[in-house]
Design goal:
The protein is an alpha+beta fold. It contains two helices and eight strands. It has a six-stranded antiparallel barrel with strand order 2-4-7-6-5-8. A hairpin with a 2-residue loop joins strand 1 (about 25) and strand 2 (about 30-40).
């Protein structure tokens, strides 16, 4: 009986951890973000073939709002990873938009195009 209770408690705790809104995995805060608007590839003058894309993003789920806002306030700008809807992983820089509460500007150089309302999976490093 005691074993059954222990297993039940372990399943409950495991389920709560997996079902949590934003998760902490390997030193990263992982959450879903929604693209509000994005840009096409833009050339950077004087840098040759270098191009950059941008996207304005915010938390996808209301339950992630506090964690995302806290990360933005604590980091201002930082290197992040994101997974696009096609499953491809990319790196970029997420910059806090100070006058747009809870929004960030994602800058990246890969060719993936992020459509308006697309959902991406963000991996935000916890250490500043």
């Amino acid at each position: 009986m005691r074993l059954v209770k222990g297993l039940g408690c372990a399943w409950l705790v495991g389920g709560l951890m997996l079902g949590s809104p934003s998760s902490l995995w390997a030193g990263n805060l992982v959450l879903d973000a929604e693209v509000m608007e994005s840009s096409e590839e833009m050339a950077i003058p004087g840098t040759g073939p270098a191009h950059v894309r941008s996207a304005v993003i915010h938390h996808k789920h209301e339950r992630d709002q506090a964690a995302f806002s806290e990360w933005l306030r604590g980091h201002q700008s930082g290197a992040v990873k994101f997974v696009a809807s096609d499953g491809s992983t990319h790196q970029g820089i997420l910059h806090r938009l100070k006058h747009c509460f809870g929004r960030g500007l994602l800058l990246y150089t890969t060719s993936v195009s992020l459509a308006e309302k697309a959902v991406i999976r963000l991996e935000l490093p916890v250490a500043p």
